[in-house]
Amino acid sequence: YAKTKQGDKIQVFNNALLNTFKEDAQIERDLQTALRGREFELYYQPLKDLKTRTYIGAEALIRWHHPKKGVLYPGAFIDIAEQTGLINAIGTWVLEAACRQLNLWQHHQIDISMHVNVSARQFFSGNLFDQVWNLVSRYRLQPGSLILEITETELMEDIDYATNLCTELSELGVGLAIDDFGTGYSSMRYLKQFPISKLKIDRSFISDLTVSRESREIVSAIIAMASALNISLTAEGVETKEQEDFLSEHKCHQAQGFLYSPALRESEFSQFLFKSNHEMIH
Ligand code: C2E
Ligand code: MG
Ligand code: MG
Ligand code: MG
């Protein structure tokens, strides 16, 4: 009897695993089609400067218009893309699309910086610098207007390589932001070692602000550290006025979150900027 039960369990486990494999394999095939078609789109989430109360940046976030499944968020496919190596092709597309858009904004005197997420595989691919160099010159991007985001854990995979690449990028005028700051295993040492222009405090600290004294202490300490090291700071996942008030009072530079806006399609994003700036002036 026990044996049968055990067998049942294994059976159930196998089916679940098999289904996951099948789904992943399907997504992999669909991703290849998506790359050839026009199924990806960048959405832009505004970044607010808490001092001037204006919007000064955008984070490009990829969305996939899947022919059968509708709009898919990166959580549904980025890991698979990373495992299969398809992330390199996707990342190349993302960088190109983001820089093309940034060039259009600059052409229309829209003074906004563009944040682009870069995956570890892309970062260590060996041709990120060439890619970025090409885009910056081809689109004549203003120095400082392009910022690459990478997580601390990813950055630490190869410290020497990362240090060199970050230095080269910063000489080109391209910023580097540590994404999800505070969630990795890395030490504070790299803040001294890498030419980092920005930290993005992870959403988990922000969502806890009003309930956890520890989170308030951690966020205040990060703000103090960033300002002492002259590194710009963005709080991610700001959803309430209370959170914004805390961040403003403690002189956090920028905020990003649903309190202001989710990521928007380009046309909506431009309208959002126009409307907000208009409200600021009047
Ligand atoms: P991330 O870079 O930390 O981006 C922030 C994520 O938090 C986004 O999710 C955004 O929609 C979400 N978010 C923003 N404000 C709020 C808020 O107030 N509350 C909550 N609950 N969430 C908020 P999204 O777009 O689903 O992206 C998830 C992750 O996927 C990103 O995390 C990033 O690591 C990755 N990703 C997105 N686009 C790309 C891309 O083009 N390339 C690569 N390699 N990764 C990407
Ligand atoms: Mg990011
Ligand atoms: Mg990220
Ligand atoms: Mg993040």
From TrEMBL:
* All copies of domain EAL, residue ranges: 24-277
**Stated name of the protein:** Sensory box protein
Parent protein range shown? 449 to 730 of 730
